[in-house]
Amino acid sequence: MTTPAEALAHVLQAYADAPDDRLMIEATTGIHGPGVRTGLTMGDLRALADQQTPDPCANSGRTVSRWYAPHGWDTPAADIPDPGPYADGEHVTCPLCRRDVPVTPHATTERETGTQYVARYTDH
Ligand SMILES: [Zn+2]
């Protein structure tokens, strides 16, 4: 089962690059004038998610990671720059609350598929 909050978080992640004015749920079209559409935009959904997020965010203290796998994903090494480990205090957008959160470097792990750089979200 998926809770409504989880479903909302999923939509926010899937459309992370969408602008705030993108209409996501259409309520009416043409009723308030020719071509006028009303409903909920990505900005509305983000604002609702902000109101739903408990303080502190559940991602506080959890890890986030990024990868460098120049030979593991069928991509020539020259096409993928190594992002390197997280810098202390580097900011990452939390996928749960969408806040810009500083992280602390945690680990660098060599795996079969590449290098995994791990950091922890600070309390937020
Ligand atoms: Zn968060």
The secondary-structure element order is: HEEHEEEE
Oligomeric state, counting identical vs distinct chains: single chain
- Secondary-structure-based class equals alpha+beta
The geometry reads as elongated
Give the cofactors and ligands: zinc ion
The average pLDDT score comes to 89
How far apart lie the N and C ends?
Answer: 27 Å
Strand content: 25-35%
- Radius of gyration, in angstroms, nearest whole number: 19 Å
Give the total of domains.
Answer: 2
Q: Give me the count of strands.
A: 6
Helix content: 10-25%
**Adjacency order of strands in the biggest sheet:** 3-6-5-4
Total of helices: 2
- Low-pLDDT runs: none
What does the main sheet amount to?
A: 4 strands, antiparallel
Summarize the structure.
This protein is an alpha+beta fold. It has 2 helices and 6 strands. The two termini are 27 Å apart.
Describe the structure.
The chain is of the alpha+beta class. It folds into 2 domains: 4-52, no CATH class; 63-121, no CATH class. It contains 2 helices and 6 strands. It has helices at residues 4-14, 42-52, and strands at 23-29, 37-41, 63-68, 91-93, 100-111, 114-121. The strands form 2 sheets. The chain has a 4-stranded antiparallel beta sheet, with no helix packed on it. Helix 1 packs across helix 2 (42-52). The protein is elongated. The model has no long low-confidence stretch (mean pLDDT 89). Zinc ion is lined by residues 57, 59, 94, 96-97, 99, 101, 124.
